[in-house]
Amino acid sequence: xxxxxxxxxxxxxxxxxxxxxxxxxxxxxxxxxxxxxxxxxxxxxxxxxxxxxxxxxxxxxxxxxxxxxxxxxxxxxxxxxxxxxxxxxxxxxxxxxxxxxxxxxxxxxxxxxxxxxxxxxxxxxxxxxxxxxxxxxxxxxxxxxxxxxxxxxxxxxxxxxxxxxxxxxxxxxxxxxxxxxxxxxxxxxxxxxxxxxxxxxxxxxxxxxxxxxxxxxxxxxxxxxxxxxxxxxxxxxxxxxxxxxxxxxxxxxxxxxxxxxxxxxxxxxxxxxxxxxxxxxxxxxxxxxxxxxxxxxxxxxxxxxxxxxxxxxxxxxxxxxxxxxxxxxxxxxxxxxxxxxxxxxxxxxxxxxxxxxxxxxxxxxxxxxxxxxxxxxxxxxxxxxxxxxxxxxxxxxxxxxxxxxxxxxxxxxxxxxxxxxxxxxxxxxxxxxxxxxxxxxxxxxxxxxxxxxxxxxxxxxxxxxxxxxxxxxxxxxxxxxxxxxxxxxxxxxxxxxxxxxxxxxxxxxxxxxxxxxxxxxxxxxxxxxxxxxxxxxxxxxxxxxxxxxxxxxxxxxxxxxxxxxxxxxxxxxxxxxxxxxxxxxxxxxxxxxxxxxxxxxxxxxxxxxxxxxxxxxxxxxxxxxxxxxxxxxxxxxxxxxxxxxxxxxxxxxxxxxxxxxxxxxxxxxxxxxxxxxxxxxxxxxxxxxxxxxx
Length: 694
Fold this sequence. Notes:
The chain is α/β, with parallel strands linked by helices. Among the domains are: 3-186; 470-648, Rossmann fold, CATH 3.40.50.2000. 46% of the residues lie in helices and 14% in strands. The chain has 25 helices and 21 strands. The strands form four sheets. An eight-stranded parallel β-sheet has the order 11-10-9-8-12-13-14-15, with helices on both faces. α6 runs antiparallel to α13. The chain starts with a strand and ends with a helix.
């Protein structure tokens, strides 16, 4: 029987080990997730002789979901529960490994992230890196277990190879309970040499960037320059200049749509205080750039530190006649920051070379130097633009780096909920921020026992200003596109992107049965508000045909994805949704809301007070029958979510964004009045709590 080999990272060393242990004719496939540069060359050569596809298969993966396996096929009806359990395993394992291998005392070097806030954030960053390393190996193991449990038993032999990259010595005892074949390849000497080489290369690269940035800025600077980005600026935030707020990864900023600046529009924050940092590879529309320029909002395009090696521009202002943003080119401070880091990092490298043989410590130092290049970028950006607050909504490793940069300069990180936290992902949340604004008690339930956030404050749903003022013209246009009758029942449909939590087949079945319902019932009118138009376009031919038929009968309309959920909810008599943020937004719009809870993603709140069969449904046919009963005059309580609105948002006054914005104003006022960060935070918290209670 031929053997299928599973490995997350394929290197020349592991490939040689495989061929030394298995004859070529006994290998069916080598399935891998990532590979070394040398392997890429080998695979290119194999392409020439048409052998690559015969023996090698690459699987795409991501940070959270692991390999792109067919979750529905693998785990069936229990896919969500199994995936949830796998994620919990990863969380437990990454904490265990972090506790075992992260030696704070070994990297306790003067001048190296020695601020009080830095160490917890640095440790949390290491934990994220470990999660990235082990995540896919755990998924591979469960996939293999499923393969071997198939009734056909014709799947051949499967072997999971664990290497240092997977933290194999920690994973093997854990995955052993699955009773699959595991082969741990011990190549610590090779890994140590590789890590040490990478450390030296990165350290030298820091020197190259520091010197390059220094000379480029020295040659190009105007001696009269005193504005942002000047090499003559003082090293630190300048309280005599306007202290600013940055919104990183903000890709939508128009106030009339759901956007990444909800805290700005109704607060007292001056528009000229705001800086938008657009992520690399993304952009805003020309309309958004023009709006930013007319409003006094600075917009910059982020550049990865790797591109800094070849970039020589000195563009430090977003003020121009063009609506296109300028890429942020580091100022003269960047070289200063890097040079300040080089000495303590050299001390740390010497300590490793002469005082330890620990591969774990080498791993830490590599990630420390790698992250230092990005931390220096953010630190320079903050200082050059006099930014004291970084406020964002994303969960990414970048947040940890920005937190470390902010900790060094005395600023703060704030987070807000753009997506109301699902119970499904609650246990993986842990943002490294100073202040985290939560929507309500439901969000607070999902917080882990130990969080990196210093303060948690209730704000309400931060985009609620859009609920407060629904567009009456939009409401009218939605209903007018549908054929009118005396007994119209308007039903809004909110979908979700298929993936690990909701398989594509579930989304398609959701659409199929609701479209069939609208076609058979002459009084039903279906209002489709898709999350992305790609969802509809990516569904099967049968769904497309049903959609065209329903539209042709005047019983269905597909809205622009940018349309407000709140407006759609107001236009409908009842809404039907897959588990998503749209559920909460519909409820806060005071709409009757029904949830198809595929895979038990929601567990508690929606089931209370006899919620099953009234608000939440586990069977789609039962949900449709309930709609028929409601249309017939029975079931008056169907979809009534008034009893749980308090848990979602205790305010519901349309002022959540205003509260967050005024909090930031209060903090800045404290700093301007001479308070340090901690005292300014205490003052802002006291003022906020008194305002919230009042």
